[in-house]
Amino acid sequence: MTTTAADSSSATGAAPEPTDENVWLEEIYGEEQLAWVREQNSRTEDLLEDAEYAALESSILEVLDATDRIAMVGKRGDWYYNFWKDQDNPKGLWRRTTWESYCTDTPEWDVLLDVDALAAREGVEWVFHGATFLRPAPGEPHRLALLALSPDGGDANRYREYDVQSRGFVDPADGGFDLPTAKGNVSWLDADTLLVASTAEGLPVTASSYARTAVTLKRGTALADAPLLFEVPADHMVAVVAHDSTPGFERTFAIDYIDFYNQTNLVLRDGGWVAVDVPTDVNLSVHREWLLFRPQQDWTLAGTTYPAGSLLATKFEDYLAGGRNISVLFAPDAATSLQSWSWTRNFLLLNLLKDVSAEIRVLDPATPSGSADAAWTSTILDACPPLHDVNAYAVDDEDTTDGGGAGDDFWLIATGFTTPSTLFRGSLERTDAGGQDSGAPAVLSRHAEVKSSPSYFADGGYEVQQHFAVSEDGTRVPYFQIAARGMALDGQNPTQLSGYGGFEVSRTPAYSGTVGRAWLERRTTGAAGVDGGGTHSRGGVYVVANIRGGGEYGPSWHRAALKENRHKAYQDFAAVARDLISRGVTSRERLGCVGGSNGGLLVGNMLTSYPELFGAVSCGVPLLDMRRYTKLSAGHSWIAEYGDPDVADQWEYIRTFSPYHLLKDGVEYPETFIWTATSDDRVGPVQARKMAARMLAMGIPNVWFHEALEGGHAGASDNRQAAALQARSQHFLWKALAGGAG
Description:
eight-stranded mixed β-sheet; five-stranded antiparallel β-sheet
């Protein structure tokens, strides 16, 4: 074993590194380290894996393996492709069907790849991570695709060329592309050429462990011999390359991701790279002739200031030539933010949140609105009930719009905490009406239900409420509460509070059969009734907090909790906890919190800074050691979110939210379950290991640790592993919070 001693580095300006007695656990696959993991796993399994756990895991697995859930599809040419996992196919089937067949209750699937059979044949535990098709010649069907396959569920993939016509991989001996397992991205340039950014075969790697260079790879040649196409500095995050093969708009792009929120976008012209002249914190996207901008901070251009989170448009070629004629498509307000957008062939779909409820607008670039609010005519899509999440995106923007073509068709997916997901398909067309100014829609939308998911719990017995807590600085923080109708407000309800609060990720309403079965429907054994007589049982309460750091109110909501302001996210979460207690929903003994990844850092800070609010903490695949996080796995890439702990001034504020360094003797900590995965190559298992080891060494009671030996950052690579992971977390929280409740 080794430790790091306290390091005084003030003479160099670097932050000192505190003593770390558990640095030996950073060797992920070391024999001694894995022996420690197995010992802790066994201890935790002895605690959790009782008969009740077995029934819970089986119930969750039944949901995950259900054959009547919606098989979501993506259209390529005349086929609709799907990837499917169930009990008989735990690693999954890549398959396709026709539209006519898909619309039936029992589609006929053409299976292209059985991943279980592939894994058995090749002796590798392959995890399917998607397919990228080559655009075929006009009139030809889609045939060649690059399949991303991970050997362990991590972020590193092996890309292999697949022929859907012959239903097999193209043999490298015959010139088939087969790229070694590595982190990176791949794009088709043409039928015989790939653009590849990769960390394989000794290619340069950034400090964030991602690809630093991109090359042009010709069919039949070796990756190591491919000529350099693009390169970024070693201290930047990653190099990305992509080719847009839209006929008439063919372009090759490169992105130099400086960090998570700053990038330089370039287009290849006459053999050289030309940068798009925008600030590095303005996000760009291109569709045919259009160039869209979404600034993350207020952007002043040609004397006009555009607010953060707005969406702007101009003609791509005009802008590159120096033109600055900008159209405002969306401007945020205090309640409304833009979450995403999707182009059909002729229209633009905007997915918005209004106080964390969905709103969808359809914009028509061919019809000016004449309004000061938006340059293009905007029509609200009537498909969004309150307290639901509804998203619209194109079916196939490359298709035609005549003769039954799907070019202006869109998918609509609607879900809510007690509303099973429903898939609709719609079509857009212009009308002669005047749009928003005349009160009539300028774009006519027709959509109809295609498929719906069944209920996996008795969702009709529960109600969804939205409440607002007030954080320390007066900010109103929304949260969703899902509970049985008529719930007693006596402070005795086992309550699970979930959050994330980072990277502009929004937590929106979503149906979960797992949460329904494992938490809402679970019943306490019963005790004295509220009126002092009889006994009764009660179910769990599930709460989702929309704290700062997320994207629920756009970039400003996210930036409010960056770096030195990180504590605002934690204050928000604590405010929600206090509000639940003050409203009588729960009490400290009945309140638990759960989070994964950045959410694991969130609940780690609840553990160390707000232990008086929680009876239990479930902390998954977490960041916890914020002094060394930049040296572990992909941690260096998150400096823009948290700050650089190697810089003394930044370590001074980072240390205030580094749970590994905030543990103290003599504190009554909540019961704690820390879980992770050995093969997680994004956050890695190291920080979870060290936190558990330190807590155990301090003699803190009721600390449990479990590490899945496969599964990547998700902690699971198939439904069986996912069911086990979720069952452990849910069962731990229930055992800790529900005892004696009634």
